[in-house]
Design goal:
Radius of gyration: 22 Å
Distance between the termini: 27 Å
Strand content: 15-25%
Number of domains: 3
Number of strands: 15
Mean pLDDT: 90
Largest sheet: 6 strands, antiparallel, barrel
Number of helices: 10
Bound molecules: zinc ion
Length: 395
């Protein structure tokens, strides 16, 4: 394995080894003697003054990670320290950040896509887990927004989810960053069509500085919809109006949300019945996808989603014939029992799940959490049930 020596701002020497993981901008290294963090080292060709300034601004404008102070687990893979190739700190190399185990934390679509989810978890990753994941995403996005930043390119690949519904926002160096010391904003230069609001579809982000807060609210609403509606995109639909618009992106631009009365389109056949969604959440989806299609100010904030989801999670009901059928309190009968596909079949062991406290709350429960993956561990266990790390090896 290729090794590398780098230096922190304080002059501490770090010994790195290649992990074999790389992206368009750089490589990820493990740090000798530190299992909790890793280092991203940029390729020389992508290093610019703006990048250096941006990463520095990130290390001094850190969002208040909702899970860090409470369970010692990071929901945002934010840069920790800037690192240099030389100990005189003239040659910028990259930064250290929390190490996220990609065997445990996986891209969000593997959870909300029913085929992938059932293959991995059977029915155990219930609607409550899906809703909890959505809640945890809102919590992390809220922390980013509260610091004056935006995710920018919020989409399924930069949200990772663990089997116990913990989440991590990754690729943070592409976020929109506000340096509060000088009010300078570093903009996001990328976008993803299926998550971008209509007003930004023809924008060249490389050339224009666009504040992404309303785009974040739109994309967040789409992510929540996907988690609760078995991976279906809110603008996917069928009917004469969209016959000539096969792509999801094209349908998004048309703005016909098929779950509202009076729209000329219908939900696709593979969508679950919208009755699973309570009126409280429907109001927010309406604001996001009907009113908010034209008017960015109508889109619900991360905080509004967080509050609405917290209320829902507290009131979910369990089906009497299958305990993995969890459903909203407004329904009399289990909706999952009636569907042609069993989205939550009862054929595997239930895994662990936790609901995270809201930012700012200092509630600590007397439960042990795995320092590696955040999973809850019962007192008589020697290993984490999720990643099997030994309790004796944890912090
Ligand atoms: Zn049922
Ligand atoms: Zn674990």
């Amino acid at each position: 394995m290729e090794g590398l020596t780098i230096y922190t701002k304080e002059g501490q020497r770090l010994q790195l080894s290649d992990t074999g993981k790389s992206g368009g901008e750089g490589k990820i290294y493990s740090i000798k003697g530190n299992h909790y963090n890793c280092a991203k080292i940029f390729y020389e060709k992508v290093i610019t003054e703006e990048l250096i300034e941006k990463v520095l601004a990130m290390t001094t404008n850190v969002p208040d990670d909702p899970t860090w102070s409470i369970i010692g687990y990071r929901s945002i893979a934010w840069p920790i320290e800037v690192v240099f190739f030389d100990n005189t700190k003239t040659k910028f190399a990259g930064y250290t950040m929390p190490y996220i185990d990609k065997k445990i934390f996986r891209e969000s679509h593997l959870y909300y896509d029913p085929t992938d989810r059932i293959r991995e978890f059977g029915g155990t990753f219930t609607w409550k887990y899906l809703m909890t994941s959505a809640f945890n995403i809102c919590n992390a996005v809220l922390a980013v927004h509260q610091r004056g930043h935006c995710v920018g390119d919020l989409r399924e690949n930069n949200i990772l989810v663990s089997p116990n519904a913990l989440i991590t926002l990754v690729d943070c160096d592409s976020f929109q960053i506000r340096d509060k010391d000088n009010d300078k904003i570093y903009y996001t230069r990328v976008g993803t069509g299926e998550f971008l609001p209509p007003e930004l579809h023809s924008i060249n982000f490389k050339e224009r500085d666009i504040d992404r807060i309303y785009a974040d609210r739109f994309a967040l609403s789409i992510m929540i919809f996907k988690f609760l509606m078995m991976g279906v995109h809110p603008y996917q639909s069928k009917g004469d109006e969209v016959n000539n618009t096969p792509s999801t992106e094209g349908k998004l631009l048309k703005g016909l949300f098929p779950y509202e009365k009076g729209t000329p389109v219908r939900p696709p056949d593979y969508a679950p019945k919208y009755e699973i969604i309570s009126e409280g959440l429907r109001i927010l989806f309406r604001k996001a996808f009907v009113d908010g299609h034209k008017d960015p100010f109508e889109r619900p904030t991360a905080k509004q989603w967080l509050d609405a989801l917290a209320k829902e999670i507290d009131n979910l009901k369990e089906c009497k014939s299958n305990r993995y059928h969890v459903y909203s309190n407004h329904l009399e009968k289990c909706p999952w029992c009636k569907m042609a596909i069993d989205y939550f079949p009862n054929n595997l062991q239930q895994s662990h799940q936790i609901i995270l406290p809201q930012p700012g709350s200092k509630e600590v429960e007397l439960v042990l959490w795995c320092s590696n993956c955040g999973c809850a561990i019962e007192f008589d266990f020697n290993n984490c049930p999720n990643c099997s790390m030994l309790v004796s090896e944890m912090r």
